[in-house]
Amino acid sequence: MEQNLTNLRLAVLIDAENVPHGSIKSIMEEVAIYGTPTIKRIYGDWTSPYVSGWKNSLLENAITPIQQYSYTQGKNSSDSAMIIDAMDVLYTDKTDGFVIVSSDSDFTRLVIRLRESGQRVIGIGEKKTPPAFVAACDKFTYIEVIRAAYGEAAKAAAPRPAPVEPDAEHIPPEPHNIVTVIQTTGRMKVPEDIEQLIADSVADLTDDEDGVFMGELGNLMRRKRPDFDSRSFGYNSLSALIKSVDRFVIDFRQTSDPNIKHPYVKDKLAVATGE
């Protein structure tokens, strides 16, 4: 059975030169969803003025700074230090997974190697992150989405937009990132490629009209698109996103526990056409 991306012992390795220091608190809150960060290290040339803003963030989040001098101007020597440390941590056998926080494609091969050794790898980076790095991870989350989800965008936004209807989650806009596509009403229309991703995944998991368990569907969608995140479209959960698409219906089915029901997803179009 596939291990879920929860309750993991995690090594969190952060590339200071490719991550905004103002987002680290929200990033660590996101990491907590997946497990316990037993190792928290950040790499950079701390003699450089470009990383001077990190001091308070490191103290507040108990992250250990690792000094790595830039031996050649214009070259990021922190990458090599992170890769070496990651392999050292791997061989201690004290972790279930890694969180690589960077937008640099140089870590793609590292991620592949860690997964080959049975580690789960969660990537966190900005929207500029190259697709190869994104695809190599078990799960990839954009910093722009994290900042919006944890309210960092709200702190910078003034005035607040008008309230929305009670059943809609509102994510305030933030300039120059993925959240700008979300209207001030809170949610955006689900793109056709995401609707097709859901439909294809439902079809891959069942050939009848009984539907697919939501948890199983979400796992498959993540494997196909590691950067899929319902929050990118203004929805706090996969179920909320799917409910917004007329093509799908969600049934809640009783389990052996009278207090628990499991959601199942059906594709009405596939049922109607007999596919």
Q: Report the sheet with the most strands, covering strand number, pairing sense and barrel closure.
A: 6 strands, parallel
- Which percent range fits the helix content? 25-40%
Shape estimate: elongated
CATH class of the largest domain: Alpha Beta
* Biggest sheet, spatial arrangement of strands: 3-2-1-4-5-6
Question: How many domain modules?
Answer: 2
Low-confidence stretches: 153-185
Structure notes:
The protein is α/β, with parallel strands linked by helices and 275 residues long. The chain contains eleven helices and nine strands. The protein has two domains: 8-150, 3-Layer(aba) Sandwich (Rossmann fold), CATH 3.40.50.1010; 192-273, Nucleotidyltransferase, domain 5, CATH 3.30.420. Helix 2 links the parallel strand 2 (35-44) and strand 3 (64-67). Helix 8 crosses helix 9. The radius of gyration is 20 Å and the shape is elongated. 35% of the residues are buried. The model is unreliable at 153-185 (pLDDT under 50).
